[in-house]
Amino acid sequence: MTVSGNAVASPAPSARDARPRRRLWCLVAAATLVAVGCVPPQPQALGTPLPSRPQPSPSGQVAAETARPTAPPATGGGEAISETLPRERFGNPSVIDNPWLPLVPGTRTVFDGEVTIDGVRIAHSITSTVTDLVKVIDGIEAVVVYEVDAAAGEVTEAEIAFFAQDDDGTVWLLGEYPEEYEEGVLVDAPTWLSGVQGAAAGIMITSDPKITDPSLSQGFGPAVDFYDRARVFETDSRTCVPLRCYDGILVMNEYNPNEPDAHQLKYYAGGVGVVRVGWAGALEQSQEVLQLVERRALPPDELAAIRAEALMLEAHAYEVSPDTYGQTEPAEPR
Question: What is the pTM assigned to this prediction?
């Protein structure tokens, strides 16, 4: 679930501006950060096919290869802008059983929600599947997660992301390859992979998050302005989504220091993972929300189909992003 988070006052937002990615950036007033609830939306059928071979924009270029990064952000408080990867502490990195973010191969989660565009509420959805593929990124074997986002019935993004768990139970994000579409046309692919073009892995979540913990870098990709960070916002809360109600909820506040008025609240349930994504603050315009509506283990035939889609996206990544993705070896089945 990702979103670029560029907070621009004008022009009016488009479907692409509000696309539901893993980080759903929203305008907030940082001084009045408060969680905002929502009415559970009606589940929306997913099944919009991934464009098999999106075409480049008319310029023939993709922004991931020609991006002009801004200066790395200042985090304040003496916190490092990137994390140090503990290479010696990844004994079995592709087994991810952190209770806050378990990534078991074959698990599919579906999120449904709404977003406001030009004053109108439209539906958007994310389908995320933990594949049975692994890929070596920066010398570490990572789990491949495949996601497809749809807004108003149209696929707006497809992504493969790479996660690994260290021996302390901390889950790391080693990189992402997202393809962003407008009307079926590929318009951007802001790729970053740890160890390539100055990028560094980040921490998605530790095994024992505490309210007193410092903020964490979720990844450092200067070539594509990826500087996302997170810190614990609330612990031991309660939330309800269409599947059920959860107690003992951990709420994380995710943000980019270069976008001080943009935040996302992500709600984690123990043993499940993310169950809700929300927004905060009086200045929010898009009022984007997501809730977990489905979580299940895929049968072998469905998992094989997802594996094929993920590998197709990776094949395209080698064509679109030769300077970044082209520096890695292909993903393989476990």
Answer: 0.80
Tens digit of pLDDT for each residue in 52-81? 434 444 333 343 343 345 566 766 666 788
* E strands present in the chain: 26-27, 107-117, 120-137, 140-151, 154-165, 171-182, 185-188, 192-193, 200-205, 216-217, 219-220, 229-240, 245-255, 262-269, 273-278, 289-297, 332-333
Q: Which amino acid does the sequence have at 132?
A: D
**Could you tell me how many helices (H) and strands (E) the chain has, helices first?**
2, 17
Q: What's the structural domain count of the chain?
A: 1
What are the residues whose beta carbons fall under 8 Å from the beta carbon of 330, sequence distance 6 or more?
135, 314
Q: How far apart are CA 100 and CA 204, in angstroms?
A: 10
Domain residue limits at 204 = 26-38+73-333
In the DSSP assignment, the letter for residue 92 is S
> Mind listing the pLDDT tens digit for each residue in 182-194?
889 999 999 999 9
Q: Could you give the CA distance from residue 104 to residue 84 in angstroms, rounded to a whole number?
A: 25
AA identity, residue 195: G
